[in-house]
Amino acid sequence: MAADSTQSFSHRMMEYVVRPCATAGFFVLVAFLWTFPLQHLFAYPFLFLFLGAVMGSAWFGGRIAGLISVLLSTALIDFFFVPPFYSFHVNGVAQNYWAAFIVCAIAMSWVTSTQKRSENAIKDARDLLEQRVLERTAELQRSNAEIQESERRLRTLTEAIPQQIWSAGLDGRIDYCNNHLLEYVGYGIEDLKGEEFLRILHPEDEQMFRESWGKSRELGREFEGEWRVRGADGTYRWFLIRSVPQMSPDGRIDRWYGTHIDIEERRRAEQALMQAQTELSNLSHRLGMGELAASIAHELNQPLTAVVTNAYACREWLHATPPNLDRASSTAQKIIQESKRASDVVARVRALFRKEIDSRGAVDLNRLIQDLVRLLHDDAIRRRVSIHVDLAPDLPRVSVDPVQIQQVLLNLATNGMDAMILQETHRDLLIGSRRNGADEIQIHVRDHGAGIDPEIGGKIFDPFFTTKAEGIGMGLAISRTIIEAHDGRIWMESETSRGSSFYFTIPVRS
């Protein structure tokens, strides 16, 4: 502790006493020595020399050296150069000049030392700024090196993972694809940047992908969907495409990372299972219809047999000579009873299909059609049929039973896809909606099949009339019953070799 105090005292003595005194003494001594030879050349050289000594002392030694220089200069000038000479007394004539010199010396000492301190402060600030710039530059270089190393490791990792990976900026434009993805699609990274990435998707999936991808970016949530991607050999396979946002520390999205998972085999298994379920459903339907037909035949057999028997008996009584009118009347009454019994059997069968509760409500028909298209999506792909919609905007809601109306749409759409089963091209099914005047909404379903012969066009809505080998002829009959129950109309228009169009209307009630 004592050593530290001694060292601090010595430092202060050097800083505030020895160094200022030495600096002031040096400049004043130089000015004093130069005064004697120069005073023979011009008058009063000591003024300029000693003022210069004050400025030099203040510049190189600071304010303390400048004040010491003022004191020494004042003393030397008073003793050697101001009359009376060799004394510290100043006569009355030189007092004003003497005072002016002292004031000027003090002012010049203060200004010079202040300017020197300002320049030193600016220099120190500049040096500090340069040092900080160098430090910041070094930090940025280290940070850039770390980022580059991190990117290199990330790219190495994405190439090592046996998965198709891509990344996109905040605007959704693709800017990176790993080699697994590039090798599969057969393109270079420059060929897939931005909107060009959509070229690898199936044309029927492109618009839906674009809408889903845009909505996910708008809402800032994860993106996921199943789409068909074209390989380098031109074939399409189903992929589960996912993308998640990378968030910055302040909660904003910096970029997106996506992956492709091949689900072709799973889709094939699902379609095989769906087809098996469809076949099982058809078999169950046929068995059910067989059971229903057998039940109806069994129920109707006895009353119809009785009707026939009684009818023969009635004819015999009437042909007798003379006619036995009483027995004929009695037998006719039995015919009436058995006929009523058969009617009751039919009524019970109809009760199986009667809807006891009215479940109608305000329904958006466009939404109903869109739901049906999603429902038929996989079945349409299996049949190699493209479903298109043409929906009029701002349609009013209508009061219908949504299950029944969707059943009508399902029947018409299924019939349309069946009609194109032998077509090699143009397997397009169109479902549309539009206003039909102020009081109706018209729905149409159009296929590109072989069309329907005009000679049988008037019978297709009749029960049990069908053009299919496996059909039972009830789909269109039931559809007509449903539409007429909703106070609407249903009809068909066909052009041979150019397909068929089915239309139905639903009234708009305010």
Task: Spell out the key features of this protein.
510 residues; alpha+beta; Beta-Lactamase; Helix Hairpins; five-stranded antiparallel sheet; five-stranded mixed sheet; 12 strands
What would you say this structure looks like, in words?
The chain is α+β, with helices and mostly antiparallel strands and 510 residues long. The protein has 4 domains: 14-129, no CATH class; 161-262, Beta-Lactamase (2-Layer Sandwich), CATH 3.30.450; 268-353, Orthogonal Bundle (Helix Hairpins), CATH 1.10.287; 361-507, Histidine kinase-like ATPase, C-terminal domain (Heat Shock Protein 90, 2-Layer Sandwich), CATH 3.30.565.10. It is built from 13 helices and 12 strands. The protein has helices at 2-38, 45-61, 63-80, 95-160, 179-185, 189-192, 203-219, 264-319, 325-353, 365-382, 402-419, 454-457, 475-485; strands spanning 164-168, 174-177, 223-230, 236-247, 253-262, 361-363, 386-391, 398-400, 428-435, 440-446, 490-495, 499-507. It has a 5-stranded antiparallel beta sheet with strand order 2-1-5-4-3. A 5-stranded mixed beta sheet has the order 7-9-10-12-11. Strands 6-8 form a two-stranded antiparallel ribbon. Helix 1 packs antiparallel against helix 2 and helix 3 (63-80) packs antiparallel against helix 4 (95-160). The chain starts with a helix and ends with a strand. The mean pLDDT is 79.
